[in-house]
Design a protein that fits this description.
Blueprint (H helix, E strand, L loop, with lengths): L2 E4 L21 H9 L3 E5 L13 H14 L2 E6 L2 H4 L7 H21 L3 E6 L8 H21 L2 E6 L3 H9 L6 E6 H6 L4 H8 L3 E6 L1 E2 L5 E2 L8 H8 L8 E3 L9 H19 L8
Pfam family, one: AP_endonuc_2
GO molecular function, one term: isomerase activity
Keywords: Isomerase
Length: about 280
């Protein structure tokens, strides 16, 4: 089990974006994460910082690896927000072909980077709205999973589907490299019950984003919204979950990022320990 942070949270928002690849300052986050007592960074691949993302070049990959080793900060996951901005659904066949090619290319780059999982967000602009969308997701992922398995990279789906719908979709994609990214804040915002969700598909959860949101609203500091993190962790601890926990928490005042992450790290670690994580049982 590792406690990670979403890329960019240790720095002020880049160019006004709440979450994006920090184009000009990404190197700084390795030392900041080390100072904050964090184990890993979940990398971001999006269109905002696409051209300057080190995943694009062999020289960039080498620099990532060097910084990772120097500061003992793992990079084993990527959040592919690019596919929220360029969704697979409700697009022309030509657009879809380009985006699938992009996914296959990104899998190869992640393989070279030693990344072990990719979070694919099917939320907001890329949300799954109906059965037609579900059929399309199954078709797209059935092909992509062959490439993912070859690259040794799991695909983790983040969706806005309710527990029953999501469970039915997962049943159509039984591939061992297809897992769930559970986002505590998004589930709280949608009014879903964590106990019901974990009962429906807990054995397929491969990674967890820790954040808090108000029902029907935005991200707020941990403990001030509708996400009941202790209940989530208690239920999750009864499964065989051995994945990472990624802090995707609300931001504090600009310039206070390091102290804010360190403070939230202590809160989350205490909640994890209370739920039984880190005591050998879920390692």
């Amino acid at each position: 089990m590792r406690l990670a942070v979403m890329q960019g949270r240790l720095l002020p928002p880049y160019d006004g974006h709440f979450q994006s690849f920090p184009l000009s300052r990404w190197r700084e986050e390795f030392s900041l994460a080390q100072r904050a007592g964090i184990d890993a960074i979940e990398w971001i691949y999006d269109s905002v910082g696409e051209d300057g993302n080190p995943l694009n070049t062999d020289a960039g990959l080498a620099e990532m690896a060097q910084l990772s080793e120097k500061h003992s900060i793992a990079v084993v996951s990527v959040c592919a927000d690019y596919f929220m901005e360029h969704p697979f659904l409700r697009v022309s066949p030509a657009e879809l072909e380009v985006r699938i090619d992009k996914l296959l290319w990104l899998l190869e780059r992640c393989k070279l980077a030693g990344i072990q999982r990719m979070v694919l967000p099917f939320v907001d602009n890329s949300r799954i709205e109906n059965e037609t969308d579900q059929d399309e997701v199954v078709r797209i992922l059935s092909g992509a999973l062959m490439a993912a398995e070859k690259a040794g990279i799991e695909l983790h789906l983040e969706t806005s589907l309710g527990p029953e719908q999501f469970s039915l979709l997962l049943a159509r994609l039984p591939h061992p490299f297809l897992k769930v990214n559970y986002d505590s804040g998004n589930s709280a915002s949608l009014g879903y019950d964590a106990s019901e969700e974990i009962a429906s598909y807990g054995e397929r959860i491969g990674s967890v984003h820790i954040k808090d949101r108000i029902r029907g609203g935005g991200t707020v500091p941990l403990g001030s919204g509708n996400a009941n993190i202790p209940v989530l962790l208690s239920n999750l601890s009864r499964t065989a979950y051995k994945g990472d926990f990624v802090m995707q928490i609300a931001r504090d005042e600009p310039g206070m990022e390091l102290d804010w992450i360190a403070k939230n790290r202590e809160l989350v670690r205490s909640q994890l320990q209370e739920a039984g994580f880190g005591r050998g049982k879920n390692r």
